[in-house]
Specification:
Shape: globular
Strand content: 35-45%
CATH superfamily: Cyclic phosphodiesterase
Largest sheet: 5 strands, antiparallel
Number of helices: 4
Radius of gyration: 16 Å
Order of helices and strands: EHEEHEEHEHEEE
CATH class: Alpha Beta
Low-confidence stretches: none
């Protein structure tokens, strides 16, 4: 099966993640805490050589670690069939958006992936409705997400990483293939 590739900012989960997802309803697939990230560029099924070419564009980036304040949980994607349950940023949003705006185009171009035209929305996906979720389960997932209070945690994003799918997707969704510290 071809693997998807992407570049992202790993997000620390200590102290907030488990409390947020502990009461998730049925039909919600919770991410492994090690899989939680902010996407910079989704490359798709480009193959490892092209993914490595894209990663080479990241290697010279100069960006200080980013302090982020985590806000509320929102349903993302199609409003009638959301594909993700994500935490939005209350602090650090502008810095994350600026970094994504700087990197996304060159990274996608280096991978031979199509350009991304959607607006950059800095968010941290923590769960997804399962692929087999019924409409009532999806509605319950959205109601759960929107009823949650803001996370209120502060985290510092200190790394950027090249990701691909995990070898055992039943245990984890993703794996970090390579990473670099953020530094000015």
């Amino acid at each position: 099966m071809p693997l998807n590739w992407f570049v992202a900012l790993p997000v620390p989960t200590h102290g907030w993640f488990d409390k947020l997802v502990v009461d998730a309803p049925a039909g919600v697939r919770i991410f492994d805490p090690r899989d939680v990230h902010l996407t910079v560029a989704f490359l798709g099924q480009v193959g490892e050589p092209r993914a490595r070419q894209a990663w080479a564009r990241v290697m010279g980036v100069r960006a200080a670690p980013i302090r982020c304040g985590l806000g509320g949980l929102r349903a993302m994607g199609n409003p009638r069939r959301p594909s993700a349950l994500s935490v939005v940023l209350e602090e650090g949003h502008a810095r994350v958006v600026a970094l994504v705006a700087e990197l996304r185009g060159p990274v996608l171009e280096a991978a031979g992936a199509p350009p991304e035209r959607r607006e950059i929305v800095a968010h941290v996906t923590v769960a997804r409705p399962s692929r087999t979720a019924k409409d009532r389960e999806r509605r319950a997932a959205v109601a759960w997400a929107t009823a949650k209070p803001a996370v209120g945690a502060l985290v510092t994003i200190e790394r950027i990483a090249l990701y691909s799918w995990a070898e055992d997707r039943a245990a984890r969704q993703f794996r970090i293939v390579d990473e670099l510290p953020l530094r000015e």
